[in-house]
Amino acid sequence: MRHTARVSANAYEGLKARLGEVWDVTKAAYLLSWDQQTMMPPRAGPVRAAQLGTLSKLAHELFVDDEVGRLLDRLDGFEAELPYESDEASLIRLARREWEKERRVPTELREAMARTAAEAYPIWVEARQRSDFSLFRPCLERNVELRRRYAACFDVEEPYDALLDDFEPGMKTAEVRAVFAELKQGLVPLIAEAAAIEIDDSCLRGHFPRERQRELDAIVERFGLTEGSWRIDPTEHPFAASMATTDVRLTSRYPEHELMGLFATMHEYGHGLYEHQVDPALERTPLARGTSLAIHESQSRMWENLVGRSRPFWRFFYPELQRVFPEQFSGVELETFYRAINRVRPSLIRIEADEATYSLHIILRFELEQEILAGTVDLATLPEEWNARMRDYLGVEVPDDARGILQDVHWARGSLGYFPTYALGNVISVQLWERIRAALPDLDAELERGEFASLREWLRENVHRHGRKFTPSETLQRVVGGGIDPGPYLRYLGDKLRELAAA
Amino acid sequence: MRHTARVSANAYEGLKARLGEVWDVTKAAYLLSWDQQTMMPPRAGPVRAAQLGTLSKLAHELFVDDEVGRLLDRLDGFEAELPYESDEASLIRLARREWEKERRVPTELREAMARTAAEAYPIWVEARQRSDFSLFRPCLERNVELRRRYAACFDVEEPYDALLDDFEPGMKTAEVRAVFAELKQGLVPLIAEAAAIEIDDSCLRGHFPRERQRELDAIVERFGLTEGSWRIDPTEHPFAASMATTDVRLTSRYPEHELMGLFATMHEYGHGLYEHQVDPALERTPLARGTSLAIHESQSRMWENLVGRSRPFWRFFYPELQRVFPEQFSGVELETFYRAINRVRPSLIRIEADEATYSLHIILRFELEQEILAGTVDLATLPEEWNARMRDYLGVEVPDDARGILQDVHWARGSLGYFPTYALGNVISVQLWERIRAALPDLDAELERGEFASLREWLRENVHRHGRKFTPSETLQRVVGGGIDPGPYLRYLGDKLRELAAA
Questions:
Q1: From the CA of A231, how many Å to the nearest CA of chain B?
Q2: CA–CA separation, B494 and B487 (whole Å)
Q3: pLDDT digits over B222-251, tens only?
Q4: Residue B87 within a domain
């Protein structure tokens, strides 16, 4: 027994050391990717693509090695004796799930996916600049073909399940369809009602110099991230990346004709805080990350919308906004501003969409992705297909590819199956928010004083610190006692819109 | 024969693919290290150290693998049939030399060296802050002991040869001793003469705001690096790093009490241009790098001193300096400025030393390193030994360890054998310069017009494009038709000082 325990402890240390190396290489690749989008001289693109391909291949090879399988086998009994929630059992459980998944994917395929995606990125940038989908189409074709081969590696009910599982472990396409059906049904009348609400949002149009927008990013310090653990840089398409819980990189963008940077920054802060508040004991293990993209998005949406478009937050922050942009806001009442940032109007660009219409942008992409994967839509006519549905779901006319099908980076990166997590994140954010409001009755007063510690701490305690110890559905079960439910989100939107209509 | 040729071609492609992966991991580690010194939030330090350790271990394991040895064996005949100067023969030759070298070092020893160096670094930082060598001595002892074990892995005439070979492949300690003996003999009287030359350098003291110093870095664009292939960032200790020939990162520093940034930037430009002008056909192979540290330093010194402290360059650039710092230079004649930046005066700190005294700082370190390695000097009395030689060679009194023996990071990092390459670089820079002047009779006139293309092209054609295809001594033989010779460097300094004395 004593001998067996020692053997198991050795096997566990061996597994942890190996997973630590895999994680180091994975995080190195994150840095190369962050650098590619923020710092890298553009001519380095092709070599960077090769470097990312190699790191991805090495991380994969190190992980899917037979030795990892042998260690996992030797740890069967050890795991069974540990509490399910222990760090050790959770690490073994996650490693086993991912090892069995990754073993199904040939290294050659994985490398081709990484390389093709890296090559596609600069082409997408150029295609978007020129607003010409045909430039990008060959890249999309290659990415889709590789994703089909990828999906074929798994026993799944439908190919899309395999893609979705990478971002939302355990989630099935059929569940997403059901949630989205309910969502669409609830949203369409809400958006129609919203169209009738008179809101003057002219204060949001004007000239917002980039450097002054960047001043507002200081809100992130007030929200709270440990000093010396993060940075913010401008980029084309905002994202958050972490190379360690102590190395959180937010990015934002600052078009000068609108007040965009601040909301993008608050959004990315939500992602960054999740990674930052993972238990430091999980550092350099694959547990040191958010459990899924939908749960991740629930965090970014919470800070962007539930905090960042709320009255209490703006009672605190509006004077600061007025100080930075006096020409724009010194003569504008707080209530006018509040109504403006909560205006619901169908629009062209997903990342600029309001809280209510946003999910329809996602539903459109989710539908198209399934059809692209199934080959039931011709890629040559994809822009027309896109434009037709934009007209149908949102009633807007798409003037060009740049503001249509080329607006998102995801398909350039080969990330099919990623989009649904955004709308699921919206839904989950309000499910969590209901719990938070019940647990923190003074939250509004705290937000009005610019105090965010108890919100941050609640998130740490209930969600963040666990990293990937629990699956997304286990996480939801533990926190809200059930599965994904669009009810709270639709109620929240309905209440908000009715209140705006009544005023 | 046809079959054999195909087998060899396959083996060559196999070797090239493996070396490409090793190179990708190596370059990824360069990026992590660049990021650590320019962008990384400071709290990420410990995790970054682990990430760098993992990448270094993986690159080593991938390279020393038996499979690489088998491929090299299969390529014996193939290599013999290729021209020595071909890319293929050069890659095989370099890989064989490095594989045989790396295989001799036990992994355990390599890890101990890396770990001990990492542990020594913060202790050196503290010892330097407290100016107390005795704190650092145990670390130096451990580093030296490991370097002795490292040297014992090789068949060398004297242990120092093994250390030197890592930085200057093929160079022997005895050669360095001979070069440095001639150098010292020539420098001591030159420096004594220089002390008698009256030079007013008060214009170089004052207040030089950082942002305005950074404006001057635009000189790098004029010197010439392909747009979209490089960037400059501030750092604590300037360096140049390249992640690809198309991804050159210069760093500089800008203390505000002196005009330092510009010279540091010109220096790092020299390093960066070397990496940038390697033949793109060598990209993603271990040939895509400067051939040795001395040849590298000859490039940085050339741009910093032979261009950057010359009259023709300043005839072109002085108006720009006056525009950026009018308070400082509008009333100062070009000739006064020229004399100031070329003033020779013994001083305490190596990295602040002038062109002439610099090499004596190096000779002192080279002598001590040999004695430390041989155990013929007592580490307890090393500071006194240092101070005595500073008095003897440069006539300066060392006030404390911080400005004496603790000023450089190299021994904390375990890098014995590195220092000599700095002085060898000075010497080589002028050997090359004599050839350049012969080949480009209009160079002075071009520099006066701010034209650097023919200089850049000469360097590309004769030195840079070859990367590591030739050893440093082969490189010198090809370009100057001989070995390292301090004659040109001493003549250059002598001429310059005599001219300053005559004015």
A1: 7
A2: 10
A3: 999 999 999 999 998 899 999 999 999 999
A4: yes
